[in-house]
Amino acid sequence: MKRLILLLSLIFALSLQAQDLRVIPYPLYMESQEGMYAPRGGVSTLYTNLKGKSRTELLDFISSSSLPLKVVKNQAKAHVRLLIDGLDPSYTSPESYRIEITPHGADCYACDERGLFYAFQTLLWLDGQNMPAGTGEHSLPLVKIFDTPELQWRGWHMDVSRHFFGKAFIKKQLQMMARYKLNVFHWHLNDDPGWRFEVKKYPELTDSTAYRAEYLWEDWGRAGGRFCADKHPNAYGGYFTQKDVKEIVEYARRLHITVVPEIDVPGHSRAVLAAYPHLSCSGRAYENSELCLGNEDTYRFVTDVLEEVIALFPSEYIHIGGDEADRSHWERCPKCQEVIRREGLSDVKELQSWFTLRIEDWLTAHNRKLIGWDEIMDGGLSPRATVMSWRGIEKGISAASDGHDVIMTPWQCYLDNAQDDPTTEPRGVGGYVPLRLTYAFNPVPDTISLQARPHILGLQGNVWTERISTESHAEYMIYPRICAIAENGWTAPERKDWERFHAFALAEVDFLHAKGYNAFNLSTEKGDRAEATTPIAHLAVGITPTFTSLPSPKYPGKGLSTLTDEERGSYNYQEGQWIGFENDDCEVTVQLDSLQPIHHIEIDFMQRADQWIWLPSGVQICASEDGEHWSVLSNEPWEVDFDDPTIRFQRFSWDGEATARFIRLTAKSSGRQGGWLFTDEFVIQ
Ligand code: ACM
Question: Are residues 396 and 454 in the same domain?
Fold first, then answer.
C-alpha cells in the first residue's frame, strides 16, 4: 500500500507545481496547491470526535500550542476537524494520519489518537507557511497529506549519569521530540559516575553515589572516581525521586513518547559497588565497575531494582545495558569461575549471557521485554532479547537475521561527536559526525535479507555526556542532528533528499533559536577537513603499495590502494579513507613505474585519544633506485602527547632532490599497548 501511495505521490510531483512545504520528518505523500485557508478573525473552530481521556489530553495539548483554536461541539461548524476513522484500510500504523486542507478548513483523520496527535503536529508545521514572513497570522496552505512512519522505534537517548541533567531539561527536549514525531526516550539512568534514580529498597544508591566533589567527569576520574555526600561543599550531581520519574513518564506519555529506562549492568556499575561493595568480585568498593556474577545477591539486587523500575515505567521494553563490561574480573573471581563450572559454560562471555538470560526470564515472567547493547550477543543471545546495535550495524544485521528485533544506533547516531571541525568545536567524544553523515545513515541497509528487514524496529540518537556538562552544550549537540534521526526513522528512504532536508534544517535552527534552544548554527558550518575535499595528484596514484604488515581488517579503508587513491581522509576515520594499524608500525613501500625525480613526500597521521589512536613515535622516509640499496631521506622522531584529548592531524614530510623508483615509509607505533596508527594518503611528488 505504501509503495502505491509513493508512486502516486511521484506522479503528482511531476504533474503539479508542488510547493516544498516544510515538515520534518518529511511526509510520505504530499500534494499541494496554490492558495490557503485563513479563518476570518484569525481563529479557527475545532472539533474532535475523540472521547474521554484521550480527548482531554489532546485538547490540553492543543490549547497550549501556538494555533489559535476554539473548540466547538458541532462538527459541521468546525474549520479544523480531528477525526478517528478506524475503517480506512490505508493506515499501516496507529501513527498514520491523513490531512486535507481546503479553502474552508482542515480535515485530519487517523485510526488512533497517536495518528491524530501527529496530524496536529503537522498542522503546527504548516501553520503560517506561505504567509509573508512576520505577519504572524494563522493560515494553512492547501495540501493533501498521507503520512505514516517507516519505522516504529524513533528514539532519543540521554545519559544523565556522567553529568546530571534534570527534570526541566528533559521535559524541554521531550517537547521538541514530539515535534519531530520521535516516540522513544531512552533514559540512561545509571553509570559509573552516579546512580540517578531513587530505589526504595536500596537507599544507599542515591544517598551515597548521586554526588561527587568534582564537577567535570574527567576531573572526577582523575581524582580517583569517588562519591561524596550531598552536603559536601563542592557536591555536584543529583537524582530523580520516584515522584520525578512518574512526572516525566506521564509528561512523555502525553506527547506519545514511551520512556524506556536503562539500568546498565553488569558493567558500568562503579556507583553500585561504591554503595554496595559486597556485589563486587573482591567485596571492596572502587576497585572495578563490574558486578560479581557468581554472587546470588547480584541477581537479587538487579531483580529488586527492576521490580521498582517496572512499577514506575509502563514501557514494554526494559533496557539492561550490558555494554563494555571488563570481563577479566570474572576470570579471576572464584565465585564467577564456580558458576562457569557448575553451569558448563565455556568462558566469561557465556557467563554474561547466562546472567542476561536469567534477567530476561525474570522480565518475561513480568510481561516485559529485555533490550540490551550488542555485547549481550557476545556469549550467545537470549532467545527473546532485542539488540541495540552500536558497535557498527553488523551485530544488528546478524541478530535480525536470527529473528531478533534490533534498534540500530551506530556511530552516525552518536550525537556526542562534533558536528563541525572537531579541532575547534566544543568538546565531545572526539569524532566528527556532521548532519550530512547522520542524515545519510540508513537503519535498514540494502544488504539485509527480506526476512530480517521487519526485525529492524528503528533507530535512535544517543547523547553520552562524558564531555557534555551543561544544558546548552547538550542542546547544541542534539539539534539539528536529532531532526536527521527523526527523518531516518519516519520518512521512506525514497522520499529522503539531502538538499531539501538541509534547507529545512537551516530554517529549523532559526525556529529552535527563537524557542530558546541552543541549536548548532548550521548556517555557519565550516564543513569537512579541507584536505579531504580536493583530490591530490601525485606520482603514486593508482599504484598499489606493499605493506610489511597489513592494516587491521577492522580499518582496511577501501583496500590496499587507499593510500594512493588521490583522496585524503575526512575528520572521521570511519568513512573509509583512513587505514588503521593496531599495536603495529605502518611500513609501506611504493614502486613507481620507472626511475623518477622526486622532490616532495608527505603523509598525515591522526590522533584521537578517546579511540586510542595516537600519532607515531617517529617517521622515516627512505628511497631506492633498485629496491635493495636504500638511502634515508628523512627521519623525524615525534613525542606523542598521550594527555592531549583533542583530535589532531600531523603531517610528516620531506623536501629535496632525489631520483628513485622505490619509496618506503616507516611510521613507528606510539608504543602504547592497544594503540592505533591511522593514516590516509602517501603523497609522492
Ligand atoms: C555504548 O556506547 N557504550 C553503548
Answer: yes
